[in-house]
Amino acid sequence: MSKITIAIDGYSSCGKSTLAKELAAILSYTYIDSGAMYRAVALYALQNGIIKNGEVDKKKLIENLDRIDISFQYDNESLKSHTYLNGKNVESEIREMPVSRIVSKVSLIKEVRQKMVLIQHELGKKKGVVMDGRDIGTVVFPDAELKIFMWADAEVRAKRRFDELKAKGIQITMDEVRENLRKRDHEDTTRDENPLKQAPDAVPIDNTYMTQDEQFTIAFKHALRKISALEGKKA
Ligand code: DC
Questions:
Q1: Residue 197 lies in a domain
Q2: What pLDDT shows up at residue 52?
Q3: 183: CA distance to ligand 1 center in Å?
Q4: Does residue 221 sit within a domain?
Q5: Dist CA 229 CA 19 (whole Å)
Q6: Is the pTM of this model over 0.85?
Q7: Atom 10 in ligand 1: which residue has the minimum CA distance?
Q8: How many domains does the chain have?
Q9: Would you state the pLDDT for residue 48?
């Protein structure tokens, strides 16, 4: 069966990765979390004295880019793909608040984005991938057969994120989560380099009042349609 590329973009904590993983699983595609890559760079910056008083030392980070190796490995125990930074599994560390606080600032830097986009192109070149992020349908894979743009009401997203962090035992208040999302939305949509925006040909999904099953059904239908269109072209 023909393989397509699926690009899922949208605001923070609106369920992109849940949908992306479900689509990848049912289609036997590879799921790539591009946000995890920016998070890994942010973690490197935190661990190497590149963040001072909540600000990124841009020059130093750019000088260090060649020393940052990011990869993904499938973990047979959790049945999930884990993010590796210079050979070390950093999957849980990159989800913690210190990284969440700084990652949008790290992702503003042009040179960081250029490096991430290069890796993303390489990972997706064989098609059969579902990649989620902020600029996948607009910059990374502008020719993706299926593009989805997702969002949900800010308060609903904050509540979902809060519940997720609580479940992991992370001590945080709802106000902190709300503020973090507000800042990230602002930085992601207003930056000069590849800001978050809907590609003109993306399928919009507002999942504020949707269940996961409902959003999956919509997205899967679109994917099947794109795959059959490709099959039709081949025939
Ligand atoms: O999807 P996420 O919340 O894990 O992403 C973390 C941050 O990385 C997010 O605040 C914006 C940035 N990001 C980006 O700029 N471009 C992407 N393709 C993916 C994430």
A1: yes
A2: 94
A3: 12
A4: no
A5: 22
A6: yes
A7: 104
A8: 1
A9: 98
Residue 79 pLDDT = 76
Name the residue with the closest Cα to ligand 1, atom 13: 35
Query: Domain of 136: which CATH number?
Result: 3.40.50.300
List residues near ligand 1 (CB under 6 A).
Answer: 12, 34-35, 38-39, 103-104, 107, 133-136, 184, 188
If you take atom 8 of ligand 1, which residue's CA is the nearest one?
A: 35
Count of CB atoms within 10 A of residue 22's CB? 19
Type of residue numbered 18: T
Which pLDDT value is given to residue 77?
82
Please check whether residue 192 lies inside any domain of the structure.
yes
Angle made by CA atoms 211, 212, 214, in degrees to the nearest 5:
65
Q: Is residue 223 part of a domain?
A: no
Please count the other Cβ atoms lying within 10 Å of the Cβ belonging to residue 110. 13
Residue 13's SS3 state is coil
In this prediction, the residues of the chain whose per-residue pLDDT falls under 70 are none
Q: What is the DSSP pairing of strand 51-52 with strand 55-56?
A: antiparallel
Residues 6+ apart with CB under 8 A from 177: 158, 161, 162, 165
pLDDT digits (tens, 9 = 90+) for 28-64: 999 999 999 999 999 999 999 999 999 999 999 999 9
